[in-house]
Every structure is written in structure tokens, then in C-alpha cells.
Fold each of these.
Amino acid sequence: MRQVIVAGNWKMNASKETVNTLIMGILSGMADVDSNVIVCAPSPYMSQVEALITHSQLHLGAQDLNENASGAFTGEVSADMIKDFGAQYVIVGHSERRSLYGETDEIVASKVQVALDNGLTPLFCIGETLEQREAGSMEAVVSRQIQAVIDRVGIGAFKNIIIAYEPVWAIGTGVTASPQQAQDAHAFIRSMLTQNDASVAQTTPILYGGSMNPGNAAELIGCEDIDGGLIGGASLKAEDFLQICKAG
Ligand code: PEP
């Protein structure tokens, strides 16, 4: 039985005031949440979030990491820095990193490896663009993205990886994949893992991301191979985020 995981990706949206309000709001409703809940904060706010969530059920994640340990990489954040603020999770390979910052499958695989080597759990994002879906290549795209990581860290490492299937056409667009579209993609991803290692495939969480909201979360998370959600826009409102957390 896989536990439901709900992770909020705040992206580049925060201020000291909104972080305070958001975290206090989420904490006030956590008593009846059974899901594993993660908030992925922008780096400058990780210290603030760490302090606010001490002794709570909330977990902290970062939104990206650099594949190097330290050094002359202006603007970048290392695995050690992330851990220093009590984070246990890090988003890797988000489609915005792939499309806006040129992250290739190889770079993403290196980041997954560095996260794992440092005891961080990667929220490893994959997904096809609208053009790729319309060309019928969703399966080929997600296979390629997953294979790059299997080639780097081995299938056994997926015991410590959370996959987030995020069709790019659904991210931030208000267009959600239908439960059937999402379940089909998740079943395909799990079958690919099964071909490599059946027991790892049964335990690896596969989250759905792409305009998940309080209105569609229960149906999506209710699908057999959907183990929770990676939430962008709806993670910025405590009430909406909590409703999604409770849908699991
Ligand atoms: C995301 O960016 O990971 C995401 C799923 O965003 P949204 O929920 O806003 O579509």
C-alpha cells in the first residue's frame, strides 16, 4: 500500500508575510490529514519554513539543486545547503527547468543522483508537451526521461525516488488531464518500472501534476496508479491545498 503524497511547488511566489500566512493556515488544518505533505519553498524562505514547521507533520522540500557539491556556481544551491535547512525532498527536472533553463535528461539524471547521494528524496518530474501528445509520443517521451535516470542510478534507486508525471500542457493552464488520461500515463510508467523490477514498481510513488485543484483531486488520486499530487497554483492557498491533502 503506497501512502498518498501531496507536494506543493510554490515556484517563484512568496514573501515573508505570505509564507507565514500560508504555513500557519496549512498547519491549522493538518490534524485530519493522513497524506504525507511536503512544501517546496523558494530557497530564501527555507529557513523561515523550517522554523515554522518544527514538530509538525509538514515536510520541507527545495525546488531544484545544482549537481555540483560547492564552488563557483553563482546563484545555485547545493544538496548540502538544502539539507542544512532541514529539507528532505527536492524537485528535480521540473518542465520549467527543462524548457526555460535547458536542463537535458542527462543533467536531470545527474541531479537525481546527487540528491540520492546526499540522502534527499528527489521528486523527479517527467511529462510530454502538447505537441508530443498530439504526435502520439507521450510514451516515448516519458520512457526516454525515465530511462536516462535508470541508466544513471539503477532501477533499485527508485525505492528512494518519487516520480511526478506532469503533462506540460496541463501545468499552470487550468487544463487538467482527465482521470483516464492520467491513469493511462501512470499505468504506462508503472509498467515500464515493472519491466525493470516488479517490486520496485509496486512501491515507487507516482504523483500527478498539472492543474490539480480541490475540485478534481479526489477523482485523480482515486485512480489505481496515482499516488498523490504535485501542486503548483493551488498550493498557494492554504484552504485549497488542505482540501487536496484531504482528498488522498
Ligand atoms: C507544477 O508546476 O508542478 C504544477 C503542477 O503547477 P499547476 O498545479 O499550477 O498546474
Amino acid sequence: MVQKLIEKFKELYGGEGEIRGYFAPGRVNLIGEHTDYNGGHVFPCALTIGTYGIVRNREDRRIRFYSVNFEKLGVIETSLDDLVSSKEAGWTNYPKGVMWAFEKRGMKLSHGLDVLIYGDIPNGSGLSSSASLEVLTGLILKETYGFDVSMVDIALIGQDSENNFNGCNCGIMDQFASAMGKKDNAIFLDTNTLKYEYAPVVLEDAKIVITNSKVKHSLVDSAYNDRRNECEQALKELQEAVDIQTLGDLTEEEFEAHKDAIDSEVCRKRAKHAVYENQRAIRAVEALKAGEIGTFGELMNASHVSLRDDYEVSCEEIDILVDLAWKIPGVIGSRITGGGFGGCTVSIVKNDAVDTFIDSIGKAYQEKVGHEAEFYVVEIGDGGHVI
Ligand code: GLA
């Protein structure tokens, strides 16, 4: 695969000079959804699918980008003196944003690059293809120019570029998982302090199965920002009643005792999700560590109900997938994963139920929704690295 990409690189840009390769993964979140901008905990893991980058230095200040995924767009050229976002720049706004964010921090890029990108994360699936491209770019810049940045810095720079160059107000989870992933482990991250811990995902006789609904509703970005604003509003009103910095500071009991400080019903429901989901994530990690997979699964199911009813970020197609999954014996837990309004579900499925899971959900979903779902039985991989 990498060899093929190098061949393509040489065909496009010529074969001379030192050519280097990098990879950064996509992620799936097991539990702790919409908590990362509420000072709560998340529990994502890096996947073995992700984004590859093949790179060579240039002597001038030009940057040439090419994506094997968007061959029709051909080579897209820009320069280090033109790190501004534009519609015409398309997907290259992601790497450009990261370059912009490095320069903003005083890390000047002294020469241009030729870059070839290839990603094997299904398009628009909500498995963080954009975060993986940001982390990949951060890694390329660190290695190419010798910048003294850690992988956590690269995650933060990626988030900054996404927030302030690409206009999506995401939290830190996706970039953190892509940068800091560890094979066979999920990352238990406190998004308030960025303290983290790896927890081995030992499922023994079960697998992680991702189901792609293959729908993406157009409200993703605007509704995401609405949820953020509603949580901020709820926090502000709660702070009148109780001394907290974030919603993640509250236990369920504390929330119940003070929830009437929140004026609107909608904001109360959003805050309730943020508080309860954070506690569920903490409990789920304890359960996993104690080998109580059943409890872990129940918490995943409860997470879905909360995201569906209180946070209202699910949609009909995803609810169909989750309802079907819950009915299959051997499914330990199933829920929506990621930002919502389409995308994927994540399920933990006993090995001997995986075929039935894929077959029966596949058929029923096709019948009910009118198009196919896709299934990926995934492995947990390492974070961004040189290849
Ligand atoms: C998207 C965002 C993340 C996180 C999730 C929801 O993936 O990029 O920061 O907020 O949604 O958990």
C-alpha cells in the first residue's frame, strides 16, 4: 500500500530526493459523547484505518497537494505565503490550517513541500477523517522542520486549526485520539485537565463492530454549535447556584439538586446529558478494568438513550440500527458514536454473533431505510507515526 503511494508520488512529482511517509488514524469513541467541550471524560480509541501522507521537501515556498481520494481535483498548489482558508482550496484547507496554526505559534516553515495524501476512512462516516488529516499534517511538520512539539501539542494545534481556520467548533477528543492512540487500548481522557490514562480493551470473546448508516444530515455543524451554546447557557445559570467551572464538575446528585437553576427545559436536558454521560464514562472505564463487560455494555446503551432523548443528536436511521442491534443475542452494547445526526454506531458483539449481526441488521436496515449499511469489524491501532 505505502509502496503504491510512493510510486504514485514519483509519477506525479518526479522520483528525485528523499521521500518520507507518515500515518495518522481515525477514531471511534466507546463512551463519553459530547462531553469533551463540557469539561468531562471521553473514552475513544484510534483505529487502524486513517490517513497516509507521502512528502518531499522543496527548496522554494510552494506547496503542492494531491489526494488519491480526490483524483479529479488533480494537484492543488499554494504557497507558504498564502495560508488563508478559501472555498477553492477544498480539502487542502485542513493541512493549510495546521500550517497556519504552527506559524501562528512562531514555528516558521522555512521551505515548501510536495505532499500526497490517501485516506482509507469511509467518507463522511464520522470516524474523524479530518482530525486524522490534521494530526498527520502536524506530524509531518514536526518531523520535517524539527519542531519541538509533543503529540499532545499536535492534537491541540489540530483542534485550533479546526476551530479557527476551518470554522468547526469541535472539542479535543478526535485529534487527541488520533495523535495519542495506542494499539489495543482506549484512552480515558479528562478533557478538563488533559490528564489521560490508557485502558487495555480486553474483550476476550467479543469484537468492536462499527456500523455506518451512510447518512449525514446537513444540520451536523449548526446543531453541534447549538448544543455547545445550550450547554454554555446551562452552565452559566448553574454557576449562580453552585461553585463549578464546567458541567463535568457535577455528580448526578449535585445536578439534580441544582437543576432548577436552569431556566429552559431544553438547556436542562442538554446539561443533564453532559453530567450523566461524564459519570457513565467514568463508571464504564472502571467496569472495563474490572472485566465487567456486561456493565460496560449497559452503560453504552444508556449513553445512546441519553443522546437520543436528552441531547437529541441521533436520527431515525441511527436509531433503527441501534434498536436492531439491541435485539440480537450476543450484542453487549450498542450506541451512536461521534458528533451525531448520522454517521456510525459502535457495538460490542460476541464473536459468535458477529455474522448474524451483520447479516440480519444489514437486511433489516436495507428494507427499512432503502439503502445499505456498512459494517467494519475493527482493531484498535496506534496514534500518528512515521512509516
Ligand atoms: C465530534 C467533535 C468532538 C466531540 C464529538 C462528540 O466528533 O469533533 O470534539 O465533541 O463530536 O462527542
Amino acid sequence: MNKLTIIKPDDWHLHLRDSHFMEAVVADSARQFGRAIIMPNLVPPVRNCADALAYRQRICSALPHGSPFNPLMTLYLTDNTSVDDIKAASESEFIYGAKLYPAGATTNSDAGVTDLKKLGPVFESMQKHGLILQIHGEATGPEIDVFDREKVFIDNSLSAIRASFPGLRIVFEHITTSEAVTFVRDGDSNLAATITPHHLLINRNALFRGGIRPHHYCLPIAKREHHRLALLNAATSGEASFFAGTDSAPHSEQAKESACGCAGIFSAHSALELYAEAFEQQNSFTHFETFMSRNGPDFYQLPHNSTTVSLERKSWMVPESLPYPESRLIPFMAGEALQWKLCQDD
Ligand code: NCD
Ligand code: ZN
């Protein structure tokens, strides 16, 4: 098989940043995806409908002329999010969820939620109005081992949220462990998970190959090989609860290559090709379209995209760097060869 044609995919978890930083990366996503869930972790965060609509407008203004790319917005939950904020978001045609960052869990999460128990009325309202909860599922206590944070979050927080709000529709974002795969498989149709291309392609050894590799540092951090294999199995299974979300998270070269480097991997430049690389490893493209283009819209109760994209089998090299304001961006797998290339004529 040398050509793959699939329904145009969507990216169910994307960081674009803002202003000229956003302008530098948005076309990469628009080239490959029909829609994307836009993460709200700006500084200050996207807290309410007015913030989300203004941000969406800035994104749309930065799109290449005539691009059909549709940014789907989310609110950032804080300790002060009100049920009125939730009701208003659920009534907006542009807002598709609210994102839970446990405070301190990751990049720009300082304004996140400090005590999940206080969010009861907000979850209740989301459940009632059918607004999807996107979760960064990592426990934050400084005593918790960084490689255990996802599992501890499942055991100490996510299980309780699911038990208290069984009708709340949840996307467990960027899962990284076999425990998360099992938890989602054991759940009902109100629970789904996104999987990133980098967690399908690298394990934690990649962070230390021949020296420290800051461009492989992201949160949740890559885990052991058996976890990567569990993710690969889930992504290629075709099961309805797993779909693509790149978590592409641009940071400048300087911010990554620093004594305290930022978490985040920029994959938007070749996202679809990276996912194809992962499926190639499993030697199975049977469910590629299902994972990339069907399961996400089905969970979000949106139509599938009406156009297609094609990939051809053709070795090419990911650029060593890409332009970024006052710096450069080092894309995931910079300088390495990929086996599938997006056809430009679609
Ligand atoms: C993301 C970012 O940089 O905004 N970083 C990351 O490592 N994934 C935040 C996030 O999704 O955790
Ligand atoms: Zn993210």
C-alpha cells in the first residue's frame, strides 16, 4: 500500500498560543486538520465566553486566506469558574468543553483548580448542559513520583469524578500509561481519551539518549516501553473511546534548551505523518481513519469532515528547525526521516 486517503482528520487537543506566536504555527494545523480543540492555557487563561470568542477571532484572522479550519474553543476551569460561565459556554456554538488543569500540573496551569471538591457545582452544571470536560490527568503533590502522576490521578481523583458524575462526558487528555488505557476501556461511552503522536513514538529512554534531550520533554512525561505499546494498541484498535489529539505545544528553542526547560513538544508541523509513522510500526492502517477522523467527532457529537486528505509512502526529513518569533522552533523528530508524506493536492 503506497497511498492512504482518509476523511480529513481533526486534532482534539492543540496549543496554538497567541498573537505572533500563534500566527507562526496555526497554518501547520490548518493544512492537515479540519478542526481542533484549542487549549485555553494562555496567560491570562481563557476563562469565559468573551475570552474564548475573542481568542477564536484572533485565530481565524491568522488563518491562511480561505482556510476552512474551524477552531473549537474550550474554557479554562479555575477556582472561580461559575455555573453561569458553564451555562453560557454550553449555549455558545463556538465552545466545546472546559479544561481541568490541576493547579501546578503543567505549563500555564498556575491559575488551575486547587481543590477538585470545590468544583462539584461546576461538574454538575457541565453534566446537566452536556458540556465536555477535558482533563489533564496528573496528580500534583511534590511527593508523587513524576512517572506515577497519571496513575495516582486515576486512583485519587478521576475515579471519584466518574463515580459522582456518571453522566459527565469526559476526555482524559494525552494518556500515557497502560493503566489509563485500561481505565478508559473499562469505562462507558461517557469516557474517552486522546493520544498524542509523541507518546506513540517514544518512551522515556528518548529523554536521555546520549545526553539530556529537552525536545522530548512534555507533560505527562513519556513512560516505559510497555506503556507506549499499550497506547499503540489502543490507538490502532479502532475502539470508539480513543482518538487523535496532538498536544502540539510550541515553545521557543531557548525556552526548551534551558536550565529549567519548558514542557511541551511541537508536533503540529507533521502531525498526520507522525501518526502514520506510529500506525506503520504496528503494520496496520485498518483503523487509521477511525482513530484520526471518526472517533473524535462521534464523541463530540459532530459530523465527520466532508473532505479527504491523502498520504503517500515517501521518505522525507522533518526540518531541523522552523521559524518562530525572535527564535526558532524545533519540531518533534527534527532531522529524522518519516515514511509517509501528506499529499499537497488535497
Ligand atoms: C503543554 C503546554 O506547553 O502548554 N505542555 C505539555 O508538555 N504538554 C501543556 C499541557 O498540555 O500539559
Ligand atoms: Zn496540552
Amino acid sequence: MCGIVGYIGEKQAAAVIYECLGYLDYRGYDSAGIATVENEKLHLKKDAGRLHDIEKKMSISKLPGTMGMGHTRWATHGVPNMVNAHPHTDSKNEFCLVHNGVIENFRKLKEEVESAGITPVSDTDSELIVHVIQNEYSKCKNAEEAVRRTIAKLQGSFALVIMHISERKLFLARNGSPLVIGFGNGEMFCASDVPALLHHTKRFTYLEENDFAVLTKEGIRIENKGKQVERKPVEIKWTAEMARKEGYKHFTLKEINEQPEALRETCEQDLGGVVAFAKKFRRIHIVACGTSYHAGLTFKYLVQKHAKIPCEVTVASEYSYAEIVDKDELILAISQSGETADTLSAVRRAKGKGMKILALTNVVGSSLNREADMAFYTHAGPEISVVATKTFTSQVAALAMLAFGLSGEKKMEEEVRKAPEFVKKILEKQGEMEKLAEKLMGKEDFFFIGRALAYPTAMEGALKLKEITYLHAEAYPAGELKHGPLSLLEKGVPIIAVAPSGETASKMIGNIGECKARSATILALSDDDEVLAEADIPIKMPPVPEPLVPIVYVVPLQLLAYHLAVLMKLDPDKPRNLAKSVTVE
Ligand code: AGP
């Protein structure tokens, strides 16, 4: 997804913006640009490619002026090239704008712009906005009013930063795409995400849906639907160091290794208030996407088994087709970023029907937290890599604590608190997983199988592999193989069986046997000697308490995906076609 940074203060804006944009690298982009204003003159440089290459070619960080904006673009409308890159300007070079999101009524705006005699130079929906602003300005001669009138015409999702050459102000607007405000001393910032600004400030506030704001170097004025609103900044505990690689080759590996600490922080929280809130409901309905959805599946298993509370888990983008309006049902929305459009949309729909919302996110102050009636957190720190690793295990831990809070099983809560120690031990398997990745080089199809809690673990393992190696990976409940997928098995196809000891082990042995009979290669992760004896490649795991299965067993799978990606010379931090924060539906 696109990245935005805006600055207004005393420093040279382009240098600040260039540095901050570097921290949004993880969002993925194909072109970038910066614009500044000095002495009522606009300076703008942009191009397709990586930031540092653009810098080498045209020194974008050296543009003059103490107010400006920057953008990293992830192409949606129009190919990645210089003309389509942001910022965009009007034909008189008076207004300038960066945009994140998708404008749905762009055809109508294009007609409006063209009938005013303006021919857009790019293929983007974003450029149209700046021409509409100019058009409005020619009528009202007031920059703020022109921006306001234009925003009222926009349909779709947007985070916008706009400036006019004769004003020491940045105009901001948000609808569907996040925009965070950073408070400095005598300087103000805005960005798509907190990590971009952490080395400048720890004080943040988020713009909310339909906010229109004016940023000066002294502060911010926010309006929502015409009314002025106050939003106090919150202090974020994350440090700038947390958003750096600190000697690791990739953020993915750093974040895999940060799991013991992330789990410790997450398990330390007291969920008393959250448990009391959730107890009021007869059923729980989880909405989430991707990895967060897998974490939700682990909760379903625990809360139904231990607290006897019925639980449904729906992929957020499917919620509207499956919704039940039942005031006895609590919506539990899980999202690392708290900004995922599909999850937010499901939550808003449920809220609209009078349902109560509990949110689990990793980002204090995110949109999802603000939509929710009650929120709790994973304390995993910033996750920069596009693939979720430490936030998955932290989500599972936080959710397990909630499940045992609801079942009243204090002992089980204590078991969850042991997660950091188990994960620390399992991280010693890094060398083993690297060697395993070497053995698996050249394989193109992978099947992950598991039962009960090991099934969402297998799903998460398959997701990691496909996200960063681009290899075909699928997960099945092990018992489902014989109902179709067995036909896909051939000699040497890797089957990764997540098979801890306990109630599922003997059935897993049977399922492994089915695969062996088709000459597949079995990799089994288990602490059960009988399971391990069945495997071509046994991966010995320590015995773990049942609720820790997803947390402990996913780690070798994360490492396997990571090492395979590295061996394949792929960048695991920035998988193709994917973005960290998916802010479009
Ligand atoms: C995880 O590795 C993925 N990048 C993706 O599936 C992610 O979990 C999904 O987009 C949901 O994100 P969220 O947790 O921020 O809502």
C-alpha cells in the first residue's frame, strides 16, 4: 500500500521526509516522490523505482523548503512510472497532493476536469483530485475552502495531504485509509504509519473517518462533519530502534527471534476488564483476515472446548454475506494493524446493527481500536516485515488468555505464560530448519496437515511459505485428505505434518500413512516418538501444553519459509504483490 509522509517545521522538509519514507519501505512500493514549498514556489521530484535509486538519480532529499510531502506508490490506477508517481500538481503548479486509497468516482471527476479544459497528464485517479481543487480555487480563491469542497465530491477511500504554495499549512483528509499525526516541538508530521515517525516523536494521534485537518508547525486543527474536534495525542512506547534491523539480515528473521519478548509482554497484561466485558455475551463471532484469521481459529477451538462458549470465525471480507444480527453475540475483531479495510468494514457493519465490538490489535490508537467498545492488545512492538510472525504468536497468546479467563481456568492461564520459554528453546532450531530448507529446494508443492489446534497452525505455516517463497502451499485438516487432496500426491511431494502428542496423534499417524502409501515425503513435527518414527524427516519438538501448540509449532514453519526464501534469493521482508497494511477492500 502507498506510504505518505508530510512535514511542516523549521528543518529542511525533504531530508526529513526522505528519511521517514525509508521507514515505510515495508509497505511495498514501485515509485516515489517528494514535493516541497519554498518562497511560494513548488519543488517536486519523483520517479519509478526504489527510493535510494531515485535519490542517486535526482537528489530528492535536497529539495529546498521547510514544508513538504512525500509518497511511495503501490500502483493501482496506471503503471509505475514517473508521471503516475506522486506527488501530483495542478496545471499551474500551485497545489500539490499525495493520496493513498482508491477514488471510485474517478470517471465523473475526469469529466469535470476535462470540461474545465484541463487534460490530466497521468493515468491516476489521484491526479484528478488536485485539478478539481484548482478548479474550485479558481471560483472561491480560498485554498482551504477549495480543498473542503473537493473532498465533499470524493467517493472511495483516501488519505490525502495537500498543500498550496502561498499557505504555510498542510491540509489533510481521511476516509478509509489511515493517517497518523506526529507531534513535535515546533514541528508537526503526518504519515501512513507510526514507524515512519518514531525517530522524531512518540506522541501521536490518528485521524478518524471523515476528518478534515489543517496542520501548521504549531499544531493541528481537526474538523469532523463540519464540527471542530479535540484529539489529544497518545504516547507510544515503541522506540525507533524497534523499527531497525539491528544486525539481522531481514526484519522477518529479527521478528521471528523477537517472539519470546513479544510473548512475555503480551502475557503480562491483565485481561480482567476484557473478560468481564466478553462474559456478557452468549456467543462470539470473530472477524479477521489472513494470519489474524488463523489466530481466531485457535481461539474458537479453545473457547468452545474450555469455556463452552459457541464461537464462529469468519474471514472479514465474507462477513457481510454471513452476518447474523444477534445482540447476544459479541464481535471479536482481530487485526495486527487495526487498519485492515475488510475487518473495519465488517466491524462497521456489525456496529450499524447495534452489535458490540471487542478488538485485538497490535497498534494502540488504530482505527479498529477506536471503532471498538473494548480493546486489548498484543504487545509485540512494530512489525515491519509484510509477513506476520511475532504478531501471530502474540495474538494466539492473548486470545488463549482470554479463553481461559472466560473458562475461569487460572492454571491454564499460567501455562500460556510459559510460552516465551518454549519459544526461546525452539528458536535453537534455526540451523536445523536452514538445513531442511536446503533439502527442500526445488520442491514446488507443499501440503501442510494438522488436526484440532494444529490445523490453524498448519494453515499459518502454509501461508508463510506461499507469501515469501511464492511456492504452492496448501493446508488441510488431516482427516480431509482422503476426501479429495490425496489425488494430488505423487512421489516426493512434501507433506508437513503438525502432529503433537495427545488426542490427535493416533489419527495423525493414520493420515501420515495415507500419504506414505502415495510415496509422498513426510516431514513430521512432533514430540511423539510413534509419529516421528513414521516420518521421512522427523522434527523433534518438546512436549508442550495443549494451548501452546500453535505458538510453539509455528516457529519452525516460519523459519523454514524464511530460509527457503533466502535460498531462493527472494526478499522475505517484501513479498511481491503484498502490502503490510491492506487498506482497500
Ligand atoms: C500475514 O502474513 C499477511 N501479511 C496477511 O495475511 C495479514 O495477516 C492480513 O492482511 C491481516 O492483517 P491485519 O492483521 O493487520 O488485519
